[in-house]
Amino acid sequence: xxxxxxxxxxxIRDIESxxxxxxxxxxxxxxxxxxxxxDFEFFGHHLVAQLSEVEAAHQSVNIGKDNYPLxxxxxxxxxxxxxxxxxxxRQAQVxxxxxxxxxxxxxxxxQSVFLVLDPSGNAIEVKGLxxxxxxxxxx
Length: 139
Description:
- By secondary structure, the protein is of the alpha+beta class.
- It is built from two helices and ten strands.
- The longest helix has 13 residues, at about 80-90.
- The protein is globular.
């Protein structure tokens, strides 16, 4: 399968806190910063964070006993990148919407995973797999 770049636009409340979160904590490059938006290189993909006072993140999906945002996005990385990102978030004392855990244990899809909310309430899920392509395994 030929891989393509994803473009994703999402609402934010504030430029500076968003820039600090995605650039400093997640390790993304801000490729353009304007008064009403930020373009990020997000692990090879194009994100556009746009100021919008009327948009809001929603928590609507049950995972276990807790509610989590149905609308979320994220990245699947190798374990060393996952650990680096996790350490930066912990050092910055960012609260986790879903605490770091391991799921699908004993299958090709076994992974470490956590979910955080950016300063605007957008949910970002980070998965760590030794072979990220295994996320498509049906086992």
